[in-house]
Each structure stands twice: as structure tokens, then as C-alpha cells.
Amino acid sequence: MCTSFAVYHQEKAIYGMNFDTDDIDLRLKVTSYNDKNLFYFSALLDNRYRDIAGFNSEGLFVCTQAVEYGPGFRASCDENDWFAFEIFDEALRKTGKSSEFFELPDKRVISYPRNPLFPDLGLHTMIADKTGDAFILEEGKDRNIISPIHNDFIIMTNFPNGNFEDVNYDKVCGIGADRYICAYEYISDHMDSFGIDEAFEILSKTSQDNTLSSIVYEPLKNEIYISFKKDLSKRWKISVVEKTIQSLDGFLNNNKIQFTNDEIFVNDLLGLYK
After folding, report:
1. Whole-number Å distance between alpha carbons of 230 and 209
2. Which structural domain, as residue segments, surrounds residue 25?
3. CATH code of the domain in which 99 resides
4. Which of 26, 164, 213, 272 has the smallest C-beta neighbourhood within 10 Å, fewest atoms?
5. Helices (H), the chain
6. Based on C-alpha coordinates, what's the Rg of the chain?
7. What global pTM score does this model have?
């Protein structure tokens, strides 16, 4: 049960995400594909690491989280559909623009697998780029539902945004509606000064007892800031370009570590700073 957002102001973009679930192993990965560097935030599910969020060095952001579509909902995958995560990974490797996704749903339905964290729920995805183009992609019965950005920001929790396209922000309902309203009001009140600290403040206000990680990405600088287990007083900074992670606020030493074999396991990282 996560919260994510993308905010744009004065040619500046900020993305944020809380990852909320049971205590499971996490992995951070920075790798390269042709002329792009790619960051993946992954969780160990069913004995394999599954990508929850990804960024590339051209400023594209993709994250997927649980959604409650309603009673009796079933994913409508068939042999003619495109498997969502394969498309998202390909996009991170090959493009930096959200707009290229808009062409896909008109050709074939993008379908999601059964949610490994919450089998009775579905999944939906936020896709954003540094130019201010962002949308949320969700499943319909036989088509994709796309909810574009409004008012220079977009928020996704765990209800289907597509069901509330023409509804005032404070009238949404479903799982995470309270977090959505909280984030919406805070962003609206802080648009003129919105930056890294404001992004973390939203993640603090919308965190839950099971928040495992809070992530903020500044695409124009290709820098990611990340905290773990609600301890927002301690932050690391990841450079997508340099492939490094550096301890920042809340630590006695300011250490910079190179990603070994492109990846770092979060439990190992936390063990270094006990």
C-alpha cells in the first residue's frame, strides 16, 4: 500500500514514493544500457527480486503499486496482451518520454500479472518524465484507462484514479484516499517552494506503520534520495550517473560507496551503518 507523486514547478521536476509492505528484502540496482543509466528499486517476492520502481538518466520515472479495482475484478491477460513489466523495462532502456506510452494502449491491452503482495488486488502504474508529462495507467475490462496529469502534479495511492476523473480531490474514496487528500493539499500549499525537503515531508505525512522505504528523485540532477523504515532523519544519495550511494543527513561520516556488480542489498547497506 504505497504513495507516489510527481510535481513540476518552474522547470523543476520532483518524483517521490513510499513503499509500504511487510518487512521483506530490498535491492538497489544501477546499471547501463547503451547510452542510458538505469536505477531499479526491487523487492524479494516469491524468491525473486521484482522491480517496484525505476528511473533512467533521461528523467523517466515508472512505479507500480497495488490498487483496489472493486469486488470481482480479475486481470484480463490473454495471449494478445502485452505484459506490463516487460514494456516498462523496455521503456526505461529505450526512451525518456512518457508520451511514447500513449501509443501503446491503442494497439494492444497492457495487462498486469496477479499482484504477488495482495492477490485480491490489482496493480496500477505512474509514468512521468522531466518535461512535465505524466499519467497513471490502469486496467479496464478490455482496454487501458489513462489518467493524465492536472495542475502540474499527479498523485497515486491505492484506489483507481480513473474512477474519479471528474471528481474533486477531497471526494475520492477507497484505499489510500486519506493519503491522496493529504498529499494533494500539501503539494497545493507548497508549490512555490517545492523541493527535496517538501517531498520528504509528504512521504512522512503519508507514511504507514509498514513503510519500508521513502524515495525522492530529482531527474534534472539524476540524483535519488532514499531513507528506510520511516527513519527520515537518515538519508542516502544515489548518483545515477556515477553509480554511487553516499550517506548524507543523520550519519557521523559522509561515505560514498560504488555499486558493486551494479547492485547493493539494503540489509547489507544498513549493516554498514549500525
Report:
1. 8
2. 3-272
3. 3.60.60.10
4. 272
5. 84-94, 177-189, 196-205, 266-272
6. 18
7. 0.90
